[in-house]
Specification:
Blueprint (H helix, E strand, L loop, with lengths): L1 H33 L2 E2 L7 E2 L3 H8 L1 H31 L7 H9 L6 H16 L10 H29 L3 H9 L4 H12 L1 H16 L3 H6 L11 H11 L4 H27 L6
Length: 280
């Protein structure tokens, strides 16, 4: 059996490897190269060294987008995971209709980002119009609108992951802790949270990366208004490519910087949370 696997392994692995190189590795390497050039098309790229990176960090719109994205990510990651975790705890209790509620909470994750953005644009503006403003009146409205949208979309998805982790906790542990006199908070702190750390690792990773990379919802909900104050990094990069002539290389440099930031934060988070995981 092992000989057959080794014999046919290249046959099955080669198509995937080719697809990975063509669809990801080559475009990624080309993107890094183009970040050091001035170009409008790939054929007329002219090497300019670190000029694109210098201009990127000199662009106030990019720095504002980076700061706005960071604030949004911190708030979204905390709120999504806290609400999802406690909803998961509630829906793992012996109450009627838990499967129905799980399905209802998960459904927003199935809706596309652009559609979600327009839906929440109508809903939020419907409320704000009563006070003579709309979501683009001030940056704070756009910020909290994006936070609400992101929570509504992702809480159900994270909840399902937390439910899987909670259901994997041996009931004997909680029973033994209760017999020993532990209260609910002590059980939560010393048993529940340590035992669901693998789920926390996954949910933290997904919420951090998805929050940083948010684009569709940002485009549909605020388009960066007012005055690009609510533009996140992905939208700022998009505007560079398609809204500013001659800024393609700078936009590509921003994309490389953005990738490095997200990758470093994601790996640090994975390293930090995996250290706290316990063996079941």
């Amino acid at each position: 059996m092992q000989k057959n696997i080794r014999k046919y392994f290249p046959v099955f692995a080669l198509p995937t490897l080719i697809a990975f190189v063509v669809a990801f590795l080559y475009p990624f390497a080309m993107g890094i190269y183009l970040s050091f050039t001035k170009f409008t098309t790939v054929e007329n790229a002219k090497f300019v060294g670190f000029d694109n990176y210098i201009q990127a960090f000199s662009d106030k719109d990019f720095l504002n987008a980076l700061w706005f994205t960071t604030k949004f990510t911190v708030v979204s990651v905390l709120t999504i995971n806290i609400f999802a975790f406690f909803l998961a705890m509630l829906l793992t209790k012996a109450i009627k209709g838990t499967n129905l509620f799980r399905s209802i909470f998960f459904m927003p994750n199935l809706i596309g980002g652009i559609v979600l953005g327009y839906i929440w644009n109508l809903l939020i503006n419907g409320v704000l119009n009563k006070y003579g403003v709309d979501i683009t009146f001030a940056a704070k409205y756009g910020f909290w609108g994006l936070v609400i949208l992101m929570n509504w979309q992702m809480i159900g998805y994270m909840m399902i992951i937390y439910i899987a982790g909670l259901q994997n906790i041996p009931t004997d542990l909680n029973e033994a802790a209760s017999i020993d006199g532990a209260n609910n908070f002590q059980i939560l702190r010393h048993i529940t949270i340590p035992m669901v750390m693998p789920s926390i690792t996954i949910c933290m990773f997904l919420t951090i990366t998805n929050s940083f990379k948010l684009f569709d919802q940002n485009l549909a909900l605020t388009k960066g208004a007012p005055g690009k104050q609510t533009a996140m990094v992905a939208l700022d990069i998009y505007n560079n490519f398609y809204g500013r002539i001659g800024w393609q290389g700078i936009g590509q440099a921003k994309a490389v910087v953005f990738f490095i930031i997200v990758a470093v934060i994601a790996f640090v988070q994975l390293w930090g949370t995996r250290r706290k995981e316990v063996e079941h």
